[in-house]
Structures are given as C-alpha cells and as structure tokens.
Amino acid sequence: MADIWLMRHGAYEGHRPGYHAPHEAALTADGRDGVRRSLPLPESVTAIVTSPIPRARQTASLIAHLTGLPIVATSGLLAEWRAPSIVLGRTAETYPPAYRAWRARRLANPSLRCEDGESLTDLHTRTRHCVALLHQTAHRYGPVLAVSHTLLLGVLTHLAEGPAAFATAARMPWQFAERRLFTAYQPTGPSPHELRTSTAGTTQCAHRRR
C-alpha cells in the first residue's frame, strides 16, 4: 500500500488555547511561513488531498504551488470536528452552560450531541470513512499528503480507541504544519455507497439535552 502522510494546517487567525475557530478563519503570515518551513515533502508523495475548511485548503494550495503537486481531492471527511455553533469564536472562559454540560457527559454518552455539533460517535464514524477514502486515493494516485485538523487527525491515529479517541486527540494536539506517516489503522472498509453519501456537514441537529 502506498504511503499516506498526514499534516495539520498552518497557524490561523485568532488561535489561542481552547479556542474553537470559526469556519472562515484564514492562515496568518506566520502560518504560511510555517507551511513553507515544513517542506520539502517526502520524495515519494505524488498528490494532495485536503479538508475544505479554508485554513486547511489554503495550506494545501500553498504546498501545491510550491511543489507542483496536484490537489486530487477536497473532502468533507477530512474536515475538523464540527463544534456546536454556540462555542465558535469562544475559549474555555466563555463556554456556555449547555456546552459545559455536554463536555461533562460526552465520554459516558458518546452519541450525545450538543445542539448542532457532532457527537463523538458521529466523528468516529466519519473518520472511519475518511480512512477508507485515503486508502482508496493512495491506491489510485500513489503516496499522498492529507491536510486536515488537530482533532480529526488525533482521532484518525487513535481509531482503535473508539469514540473515546476524541479525548486522546484533545490531550495530544498536533502542532501547526506537523506531518506524520499514517500507519496505525487499516480499514474494514465502508461500502462505496457509504463513501458517496458521507460528508462533514450532514449530521442532523439534536435538541439540547440538559
């Protein structure tokens, strides 16, 4: 099987500890410099796949420009965990009560959603589909670089832990523009139909549970 390299996007506007970035947060000048410093890529890499979220897509586009490699796929399966809208642009000091209550219960009840956010089970299921997509892409194009986000990458590299991989990912964040070889998980494989129908934004909103 061809190599799959995983990479977190570069530094983005507004970042600080515990911050839930808005979708539109863009790379900073320092973030772009960090992406440049992450090069060269391993010589075997022949193609790039990326999350559609701007900070990841901008990272992938910069790498493509600097290396001449093609971006062969932009997939919502690589998007970051979808935090509920009530915490976007917030840090821990200003998290609303509903989100704090969800955080206290999320490991005991991983299928629980906070408003329009993904549950831990939602994220784990999506990430399993993402692994299958990455293997299929590497089989078609050869060694690939996948540009994504810290929580998605953390779950991706700890899938065997089940939905609780979210907690591991939160404790062990990836650095900006960090790159690692993915070797930890071989998919049992969702069907082609699942891959066609699985996207980052299709989870239905849940009613708030108190």
Structure characterization notes:
- With 210 residues, the protein is α/β, with parallel strands linked by helices.
- 35% of the residues lie in helices and 10% in strands.
- It contains seven helices and five strands.
- It has helices spanning 29-37, 54-67, 97-105, 120-141, 150-156, 165-171, 192-197, and strands spanning 4-8, 47-50, 71-74, 144-148, 179-181.
- It has a five-stranded mixed β-sheet, with helices on both faces.
- Strand 2 (47-50), helix 2 (54-67) and strand 3 form a beta-alpha-beta unit.
- Helix 5 (150-156) packs across helix 6 (165-171).
- It is globular, with a radius of gyration of 17 Å.
- It starts with a strand and ends in a 13-residue tail after the last helix.
